[in-house]
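Q: Got a minute? One more chain.
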Amino acid sequence: MMALAFLGGVAAALGFPSYQAMLPDLVERDHLLAAVSLSSAQWNLGRVVGPALAGVVLVASSAAWAFAVNAASFAAVVVALLLVHLPRRERPLATGEGTFGRIADGARVAWAEPGCRSAIVLIAVVALVGSPFIGLVPAVVIDGLHVHPAAAGTAVLVTGQGIGAVVGALALVPMALALGRRRLLVRALFAFPAALVCYGIAPSLWSAALAIVVVGGTYIGVLSGLNTVVQLRAPEEARGRVLSLYMMALGTIYPVGLVVEGAIARSIGIGTVTVASGVILLVVMAGVAFVRRPVFDALGDPEPAVAVA
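A: Always. Here it is, folded:
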């Protein structure tokens, strides 16, 4: 099981950046935030609908059939990819030799571009401090809210987060048109930890469900906004490698934060840990706003290229 989970993680690490790197070739630049938001919305909708469908299969047959149906559903993804036509480009000459050289080139490009650097650093901080709320939902239900049966309470909160994420993703584009993309992203970076604090102090399951709807909406605003920054600012020839670094920062640091916060919660309580994570993230964002303002400034749209005679 561990070996299969490892292989699944390797496949995801190769697949997700590839999917994301396709988006700028499929939609116009002005519609990129909408495309990223729609991608996030359908993924989170799947997190709500998928377990419900899996429950039906489990009742009708077994867990093995649930995995089999899930595997068969990827045929739709394969068909969709076969129907996608991307522009043909010559592969640029890379300065790095071999796989590790290309990875090093991608890291240098990401660090040299201020917007990409800011997005990767910010998503790493969010993943370490804020993102663990996802994996700690059962602990909130069992140890924080003392809900029985725990499975039903967990389902309510997970569904609430998914609903918030879908609604938030669909609302991003009109909000970005009204506020501006960079301003909306900065506000999401402050609203997400504030929502975490409200979620951590919620006294009942239904108040926590309402709070986690807001958490899910603001969290998807952070993810979609930072992802769009990387999409827009990464050089075309290195976009996939820069996106892979962004997703690695999110995917590898989140489990570390989850383990650390879970261990601390055993000593001081899950509610205290959730509130503390929101407060720490708020303090970090305020520090960036007042001390390292260029980090937020770099999240804006890149300047259009100027032709030189």
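A: The two ends are 60 Å apart (CA to CA).
Q: Perfect, thanks.
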